[in-house]
């Protein structure tokens, strides 16, 4: 993105994806596309052989992907579904059947038939104006590339074979590549392409290796063996740094490590403000495998268990027993602390393919989350049965996402009551007093909060979507990302109203959007009366540390002033200034830089 030249040293800036500082040697890997293929005609008597050649390439690729999946490092097991989706693409009729049909109908070679099938899919994807969906074409492209490579007999270096401590420099890494990385060897990686929402980026975070993407020209500017400094928190990459820069970053690295371990060491202790108020700090998770990390980082329960993934990976919808086993295990591991299981929030950026879900022009405003569940009660009931059955094995709460008004709360609760009746008739036990809550993430629910509150046991404010819908900013569209601001006065007023309504009705209220894990936002949330926050696991130690440095009385009066300010920039500047004074470490450790 940026390229500044200082003597022999070069600085580049990209998109920070996975935090941490590394200093090491560059290893360039060529992930360029397979060479261009030509069309040639196949005679009638050779058609069956050509189809067999295509099928064999599919089988080989299937074997390779299965081997990759089985050899995945433990930390990545929760992401195996990505390779499952690649396996599904291999056999998808638009690739598999369509290519065979093309070989037969057009009497052409398998490579050309496959390329045409891919181009047709690319055409369809290109008409969808949604960053998340359009980046999923990358998965189809990746599978096509693997097949083409097999058909042409060209080999590619496996990243699993890299046995030195190096920083990988590539044009782009696929999720398959990422799953092959050995985190004890590979220090981190940088790429020309890619964005924050790519699967490879999500997997890098799970591996906890620093990563910067979107550098545009890294593979052109970096030579094999160059010394690199990669700062995965700021997106900065320095090529062949000068001596004093290396020393400066070594110092930063050491400080970051020391600070991280010092706050992690005490993160199992409760987060109590200077004036004695205890704030519950919980973890957001998406996979069962993350529960252990949630506990290690000091999570006092799971405040948000996103349950979409089993639905994204399987061709049909997952069965009750499969879901039950998963929820039961989460409840057992985290007990006696609670887990809030959020019912299915499919749609919008949590995209699932296949006949279950229709393509929509405007999926964020479409048939997603609770709307989908109410339309498909069989799917909803299966999940509710699994949640209720699991409620005996720990402290389980159930939460409905994307509630827009009272009717949806009543309808969802009615279905829950029907499921309870069914279980009663079948003499299946469950926790009768299971707490039922809703996410407040649509502006209409904010307006109606006082009407909704008496019908539920808790509110959880989903700021990710609330910002999206309140400010009309697509949360996955990079062109309006600059407006995606937790400090917008409109949002803060909404949170204030929701807390008021909850307190008046005597129900609990928490925040579980990304804002809750932002150290800069903690003070303002507490000042508004939030006493429970839930966030991505790795944010927990720092947020607890910030809470321990604040006095609730003090910030309540300090942050009143925020409501006299009119723009997000003013609020942000004010909050930064106050937090700098209240928690000087935030600035010293560079957390106010971003
Ligand atoms: C939110 O919208 O803030 C939230 C926590 O849910 P998700 O990010 O899963 O939509
Ligand atoms: Mg949401």
What does it look like?
There is one protein chain. The chain is α/β, with parallel strands linked by helices and 594 residues long. The chain folds into three domains: 2-31 and 161-257, Glucose Oxidase, domain 1 (3-Layer(bba) Sandwich); 44-152, Orthogonal Bundle (Enzyme I, Chain A, domain 2), CATH 1.10.274; 266-588, TIM Barrel (Alpha-Beta Barrel). Helices cover 46% and strands 15% of the residues. It has a nine-stranded mixed β-sheet with strand order 1-2-9-8-4-5-6-7-3. Strands 10, 11, 12, 13, 14, 15, 16, 17 and 18 form a nine-stranded mixed β-sheet that branches. Strand 6, helix 8 (199-207) and strand 7 form a beta-alpha-beta unit. Helix 1 (47-70) packs antiparallel against helix 2, helix 3 (96-106) crosses helix 4 and helix 15 (377-390) crosses helix 16. The longest helix has 24 residues, at 47-70. The radius of gyration is 26 Å and the shape is globular. Mean pLDDT is 88; it is low at 1-7. Residues 304, 306, 345, 441, 462-465, 512-513 line the site of phosphoenolpyruvate.
Rg over CA atoms, rounded to whole Å, is 26 Å
CATH architecture of the largest domain: Alpha-Beta Barrel
Biggest pleated sheet: 9 strands, mixed
Percent range of helical residues: 40-55%
Number of domains: 3
Care to count the β-strands? 18
Q: Which parts are unreliable, with pLDDT below 50 for 5 consecutive residues or more?
A: 1-7
What overall form do the CA principal axes indicate? Answer: globular
Strand order of the largest sheet: 1-2-9-8-4-5-6-7-3
Instruction: Measure the end-to-end span.
Output: 17 Å
Strand content: 5-15%
Note the quaternary state here: single chain
SS-based structural class?
Answer: alpha/beta
**Continuous helix count:** 25
Q: What small molecules accompany the polymer chains?
A: phosphoenolpyruvate, magnesium ion
CATH superfamily label of the largest domain: Phosphoenolpyruvate-binding domains
């Amino acid at each position: 993105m940026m390229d500044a030249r200082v003597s022999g040293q070069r600085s580049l800036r990209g998109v920070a994806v996975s935090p941490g500082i590394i200093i090491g040697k560059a290893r360039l890997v060529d992930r360029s596309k397979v060479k261009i293929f030509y069309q040639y005609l196949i005679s009638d008597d050779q058609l069956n052989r050509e189809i067999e050649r295509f099928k064999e390439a599919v089988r080989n690729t299937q074997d390779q992907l299965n081997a990759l999946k089985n050899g995945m490092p433990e930390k990545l097991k929760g992401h195996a579904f990505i390779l499952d989706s690649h396996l599904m693409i291999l056999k998808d009729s638009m690739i598999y059947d369509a290519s065979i049909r093309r070989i037969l109908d057009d009497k052409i070679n398998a490579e050309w038939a496959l390329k045409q099938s891919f181009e047709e899919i690319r055409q369809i994807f290109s008409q969808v104006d949604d960053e998340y969906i359009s980046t999923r074409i990358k998965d189809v492209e990746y599978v096509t590339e693997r097949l083409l490579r097999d058909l042409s007999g060209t080999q590619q270096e496996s990243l699993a074979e890299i046995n030195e401590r190096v920083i990988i420099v590539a044009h782009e890494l696929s999720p398959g590549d990422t799953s092959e990385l050995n985190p004890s060897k590979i220090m981190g990686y940088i790429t020309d392409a890619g964005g924050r929402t790519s699967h490879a980026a999500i997997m890098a975070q799970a591996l906890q290796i620093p990563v910067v993407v979107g550098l545009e020209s890294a593979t052109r500017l970096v030579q094999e063996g160059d010394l690199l400094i990669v700062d995965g928190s700021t997106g900065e990459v320095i090529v062949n740094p000068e001596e004093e820069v290396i020393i400066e970053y070594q110092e930063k690295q050491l400080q970051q490590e020391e600070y991280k371990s010092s706050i992690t060491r005490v993160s199992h202790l409760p987060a109590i403000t200077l004036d004695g108020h205890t704030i519950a700090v919980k973890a957001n998770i998406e996979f069962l495998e993350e529960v252990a990390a949630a506990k290690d980082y000091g999570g006092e329960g799971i405040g948000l268990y996103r349950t979409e993934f089993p639905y994204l990976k399987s061709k049909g919808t997952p069965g009750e027993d499969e879901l039950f086993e998963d929820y039961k295990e989460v409840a057992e591991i985290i007990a006696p602390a609670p887990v809030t299981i959020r019912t299915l929030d499919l749609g919008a950026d949590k995209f699932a393919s296949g006949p279950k879900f229709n393509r929509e022009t405007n999926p964020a405003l479409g048939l997603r989350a609770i709307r989908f569940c109410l339309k498909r009660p069989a799917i909803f009931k299966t999940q509710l049965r699994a949640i209720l059955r699991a409620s005996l094995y720990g402290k389980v709460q159930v939460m409905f996402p994307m509630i827009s008004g009272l009717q949806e709360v009543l309808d969802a609760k009615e279905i829950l009551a029907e499921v309870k009746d069914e279980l009663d008739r079948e003499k299946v036990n469950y926790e009768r007093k299971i707490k039922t809550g809703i996410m407040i993430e649509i502006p209409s629910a904010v307006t109606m909060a006082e009407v909704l509150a008496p019908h539920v046991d808790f509110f959880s404010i989903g700021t990710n979507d609330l910002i999206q819908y309140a400010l009309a900013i697509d949360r996955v569209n990079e062109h309006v990302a600059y407006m995606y601001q937790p400090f917008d006065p409109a949002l803060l007023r909404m949170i204030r109203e929701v807390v008021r309504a909850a307190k008046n009705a005597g129900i609990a209220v928490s925040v579980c959007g990304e804002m809750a894990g932002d150290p800069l936002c903690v003070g303002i949330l507490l000042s508004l009366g939030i006493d429970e926050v839930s966030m991505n696991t790795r944010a927990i130690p720092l947020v607890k540390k910030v809470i321990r440095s604040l006095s609730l009385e003090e910030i309540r009066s300090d942050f009143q002033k925020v409501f006299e300010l009119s723009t997000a920039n003013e609020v942000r500047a004010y909050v930064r200034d106050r937090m700098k004074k209240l928690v000087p470490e935030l600035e010293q450790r560079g957390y106010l830089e971003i």
